[in-house]
Design brief:
- By secondary structure, this protein is an alpha+beta fold.
- The chain has helices at about 20-30, 35-55, 60-65, 70-75, and strands at about 85, 90-95, 100-105.
- The protein has a three-stranded antiparallel beta sheet.
- Strand 2 (about 90-95) and strand 3 (about 100-105) form a beta hairpin.
- It is elongated.
- The mean pLDDT is about 75.
Length: about 110
């Protein structure tokens, strides 16, 4: 079972049949495989956005990933993608022609 920010973590510090681990498993399996996959992709994109914001990877490295629509992720977070947005004090904008690419705003 994949762990994303949208799922509870199953911990090995408790028995697999502990109430907490059982709840985590029930929550995970209450979503369809398509929903689990979509949540995982969104969580991965958000991790990469965070990596760009803190300087761990460049905007160009981010744009080379194949994680789908950046616009969809940002919109789901309440960010207006029609104008520049910022993370950690760095300003970014989406490429006007390709809403899956992010670039440093000038």
């Amino acid at each position: 079972m994949a762990s994303t920010s949208f799922s509870m973590t199953i911990t090995d510090k408790e028995p697999i049949d502990s109430p907490r681990n059982k709840l985590a498993t029930d929550v995970y399996f209450s979503y369809s495989p398509a929903q689990q996959e979509k949540a995982g992709l969104m969580a991965n994109r958000f991790r990469l956005h965070y990596s760009v914001a803190n300087g761990s990877i460049s905007v160009n490295q981010y744009n080379e990933t194949d994680l789908g629509s950046t616009s969809e992720l940002l919109t789901s977070l309440g960010i207006n993608v029609s104008k520049s947005f910022s993370f950690n004090g760095k300003s970014f904008s989406l490429d006007a022609q390709d809403k899956s690419s992010c670039r440093t705003a000038s």
